[in-house]
Amino acid sequence: MKKVIIIGAGPGGYYSAINLAKSGYKVSLIEKENIGGTCLNVGCIPTKSLLDQTSLFEHFQTLSAKSIKQKLFLGDNIQINIDALKLFQIEVINQLKQGLEKLFKAKNIELIYGKAQFLSGNKLQIAHSNDTKHSELEADEIIIATGSMPRTIPGFTFDGRLIVSSDNIWNIPYVPKRLLVIGSGPIGIEFARVFKVLGSTVTVSEIKESLCPILDLELSDNLSRSLKRRGIELKINRATKFLEKLQDTVKVEFLSTVDSEREIREYDQVLVAVGRKPNIENLSIEKAEIELEPTGFIKTDEYLKTNKPNIWAIGDVTNYPQLAHTASSQARVVSQNITGKKIKFDDRFIPSCIFGYPEVAFVGFTEEQIKERNIDYKTGKSLYLASGKAKASGLTEGIVKIIMEINTRKILGAHIIGAEASSLIHEIVIAMQNNLTVDQMTNSIHAHPTYSEILLEALEDCLGEAIHL
Q: Do residues 96 and 38 share a domain?
């Protein structure tokens, strides 16, 4: 029986382990701290439990403030119980971890808690977490799935109190009066939303010329307006410089990248959310002679194999979008390739999301990218404001934007901001992956009243057939 060792029990690691165990391989899964990785323990799951509950609270507040003849809800003293919210987070995490442990046991996966280091291309040394002993393991195949860690910027050294990463504040140690978020990617935006609802005065700074630069510019503008309406201050085109750490505050200087204007502010806490770097520093990968890319990621081919024929890499250690669903999809590819198949990893249709309200989701090209490629295209749009479902739910903020290639009528990109965007985007992912045309999609009946009708109308608008525009 072939032996496989997987380093890291995050989404990529545990998906690989379960798939390979089902295929009859003897699997050892090594985890230095917590099964589920960053996603389950300090990332996707705990932050979404925060965002979902705070978004519900915000929605309830908004509805209760709206009046036609009288308020929809009575009572003015609505508050979030932060202690209960934290307990809810922990309960969700523990339930999911228990589920994984049962799966590992049922599939005869050997779970080893410890830190792994390469001794050679097929041998690892394990420093066990529960004692001072070290052991050695050999395998026919090895998968590196050790995830990532937060990046910082010069001067802003993480101390876990005044200068923090998302790993430090996911469980709300306290609510700072004034919070600065450096970086306007999904992590920064999500925590800005959470802490604003919890009572912080929030500022988001971004060195580039638009908020969340990975977004289509039109969606970025919509998101900017949404955040401003909620009282979040945005400092776009601002470089951020650390000045001084005082006893309980941090002094920061903002420098305009447009006109060099300077401004000094003081904050009770600074969240640095400028991305994550591959977590490979303590693996001794040089002993296995594994090649890295200039950016520090593990170099892989299109099958996710490293330069060593028996060593594979998946998830945040590879130079693909650092998302849990990227890792689990790569795990599926690698698991099948280890069994003898030759499957390439296709990264063209990976959806990305920003959670909270309104949600943001997108896949494919932005309109700016399409213009650079000189492709003949047309956009179709639909507003949530025109949707019966959105009106009934009181969630009318948002837009769907579809970009269609004129000649083929295929979808080049889709960009959604609004309720349930993270679910709606998958209809487009499947369409793009299967080369469906906009005509084929508009021939599909969408239930009423649903948010999916907003997506349908944007598709119809690509063809000039929308009725609400």
A: yes
User: Whole-structure pTM over 0.70, yes or no?
Assistant: yes
**Which single residue is written with the structure tokens 């993270």?**
422
Q: How far is CA 360 from CA 198, 202, 400, in A?
A: 21, 20, 10
**Which H/E stretch holds residue 354?**
strand 352-354
Strand, coil or helix: 242? strand
DSSP reduced 3-state for 110: strand
Q: Are residues 7 and 126 in the same domain?
A: yes
Residue 366's CATH number? 3.30.390.30
Distance, in Å, from the CA atom of 404 to the CA atom of 19, rounded to the nearest integer, reads 37
Q: What are the start-end ranges of the E strands in 103-261?
A: 110-118, 123-128, 134-138, 141-144, 148-150, 163-164, 178-182, 201-206, 233-236, 238-245, 250-256
Same domain, 141 and 288: yes
At 160, is the secondary structure helix, strand, or coil? Answer: coil
The catalytically annotated residue of 59, 128, 426, 448 is: 448
C-alpha 138/C-alpha 135 separation (Å) is 10
Residues 6+ apart with CB under 8 A from 330: 12, 304, 314, 315, 318, 320, 345
Say if residue 231 is in the same domain as residue 319. no
Max intra-chain CA distance, the chain = 75
From the list 340, 272, 14, 254, the residue with the least C-alpha distance to 146 is 14
CB 367 within 8 A of CB 217: yes
Question: Which tokens go with 399?
Answer: 């837009």
pLDDT digits (tens, 9 = 90+) for 80-121: 999 999 999 999 999 999 999 999 999 999 999 999 999 999
Residues 266, 287 within the same domain: no
Q: Any idea what the CATH number is for the domain that residue 233 is in?
A: 3.50.50.60
Q: Are residues 235 and 179 in the same domain?
A: yes
pLDDT in tens, 31-61: 999 999 999 999 999 999 999 999 988 888 7
Q: Kindly report the average pLDDT of the chain as a whole number.
A: 95
The total of structural domains in the chain comes to 3
Q: Which domain holds residue 144?
A: 3-42+85-149+277-338
In tens, the pLDDT along 157-180 reads 999 999 999 999 999 999 999 999
Residue 448 is a catalytic residue: yes
